[in-house]
Amino acid sequence: MDFLLSLQGVVAGYGAGDILKGVDLDISPGTVTCLIGPNGAGKSTVLKTVSGLLRPRIGLVRFKGEEINRLSPRARLLRGIVHVPQDRSLFPAMTVWDNLLMGGYVVKDQKAVRRRIDEAAAVFPICTRRAHDQAGSLSGGEQKQVELARTLVLDPGLILLDEPSIGLDPKSRHQVFASIRRLAESGRTVLLVEQNARSGLAASDFGAVLESGVVRLVATGASLLEDPEVARLYLGAGRAAAPTLSGVTPDTGRSPSTISSEGAR
Ligand SMILES: Nc1ncnc2c1ncn2[C@@H]1O[C@H](COP(=O)(O)OP(=O)(O)O)[C@@H](O)[C@H]1O
Ligand SMILES: [Mg+2]
After folding, report:
1. What's this model's pTM, rounded to 2 decimal places?
2. How many Å lie between the centroid of ligand 2 and the Cα of residue 114?
3. Could you point out which of 4, 45, 65, 226 has its C-alpha 20 to 30 Å from the C-alpha of 25?
């Protein structure tokens, strides 16, 4: 099996210490993978080593078979690795449409950019509805939709999403996860990080648990949701946090209600 993205023994950190202590992770094309783990585990750091904001000290990052360790963030962007950071990243004083145009600023073929913007707007109607409004006037959930649309302007091979649902109300959160499923169904590959692990896993094909600087466990999203130890450690078991993701969950053969009742035990 040819993986789209492979991390092999990635060691990385910021100062003297290592945060990632040998991360191995393989992502198959066309899948959604949710990285979970405790606060400060290094989940965002993993995404940074993929988009190039941080270079591994040891180990390999491979994308489409190419070793990309030494490539700049821009070079990785041009190869289709698009990173949506946790914080809002639209230019608030620019219109929604101009933000989409900015998404394609590294692309030479501006005709392709315009075509992709039209395609993105078809997937994310908010882009047309609010095209001429300042991005900063949109709600947090609406801005996240535009951020997702903007990734499509680069015809991304891999979309990295850092905490896409953070700070959103339940309805917007639901919309964000539904959008992620739609991206997957149109063949995009997504690696996301979610504090909201239960909803993140429910919307993902696979889940990976990052702990103490290594990936400790990789399994389908559904099986991680059913794993009692994962539930106890990472899913806030005991709290009845039933995700309302009907129609959003991947086809795992299990209903969200079954999952939530097990997780709450
Ligand atoms: N720019 C930075 N400089 C120094 N330390 C950082 C920086 N970013 C993150 N860290 C530290 O690295 C560790 C992992 O951070 P992070 O990857 O953001 O964790 P997570 O996303 O899992 O919450 C934390 O201890 C954090 O304080
Ligand atoms: Mg983080």
Report:
1. 0.89
2. 32
3. 226
